Backbone:
């Protein structure tokens, strides 16, 4: 099959083959391109979609972007089960195998240093949401008898919200400290926008933790013990992922 070369990740040579049914971006199975003792995992993609101009246009198409990102992530997930991949950015494309080799040579030192640091490690994501308070609007609130009553009701509502966010902040800070002490490294990401994530509640912690694969079970148990610990706080765990948050400028 002819076409451009789509690059998913760079990693060290690995002996375990990827699943035979694995399909990459644009439906082409990924393959290993070995160079200078490193491996670039690539597949062929059509120029009509992945040349510079059409790719720029496609990145504005949410449906196309979602499908491509899903295929990209599927390859990264498959790699994560057999090796420690260093993921490259979505849409990393070269003209041919020679272009991929040139890229490896130009960034070889950085790739080797980062792969050494990430070897045998995976990323776990932890999010904490402060659940919305029960709505009392199922039936209209009792009308304030006076301006003073109205102000008193407003002060009580404000105090209740302040207490809830203080509780959420205290819980998420304590959890992050505990998980960071267990993990080898951690990253705090900005809270997710609920309009984009569609998650309920307010995201008060959005963090990633770098954990040795051999200690992942202990990390999962540590997170699980916190679920339900504080009423109104929802803890979500995702992973294990390739170490996107810790790959530095290589991603």
Residues:
């Amino acid at each position: 099959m002819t076409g451009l070369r789509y690059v998913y990740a760079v990693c060290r040579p690995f002996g375990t083959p990827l699943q035979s049914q694995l399909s990459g971006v644009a439906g082409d199975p990924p393959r290993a391109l070995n160079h200078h003792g490193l491996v670039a995992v690539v597949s062929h993609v059509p120029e009509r979609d992945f040349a510079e101009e059409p790719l720029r246009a496609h990145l504005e198409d949410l449906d196309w972007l979602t499908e491509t990102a899903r295929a990209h992530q599927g390859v990264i997930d498959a790699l994560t089960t057999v090796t420690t991949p260093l993921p490259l950015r979505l849409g990393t494309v070269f003209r041919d195998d020679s272009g991929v080799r040139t890229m490896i040579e130009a960034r070889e030192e950085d790739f080797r240093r980062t792969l050494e640091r990430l070897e045998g490690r995976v990323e776990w994501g932890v999010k904490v949401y402060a659940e919305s308070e029960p709505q009392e609007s199922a039936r209209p609130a009792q009308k304030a008898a006076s301006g003073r009553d109205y102000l008193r009701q407003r002060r009580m509502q404000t105090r209740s919200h302040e207490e809830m966010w203080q509780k959420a902040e205290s819980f998420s800070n304590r959890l992050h400290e505990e998980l960071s002490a267990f993990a080898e490294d951690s990253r705090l990401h900005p809270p997710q926008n609920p309009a984009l994530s569609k998650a309920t509640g307010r995201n008060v912690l959005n963090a990633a933790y770098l954990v040795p694969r051999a200690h992942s079970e202990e990390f999962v148990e540590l997170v699980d013990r916190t679920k339900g610990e504080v009423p109104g706080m929802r803890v979500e765990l995702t992973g294990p992922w390739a170490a996107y948050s810790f790959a530095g400028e290589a991603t």
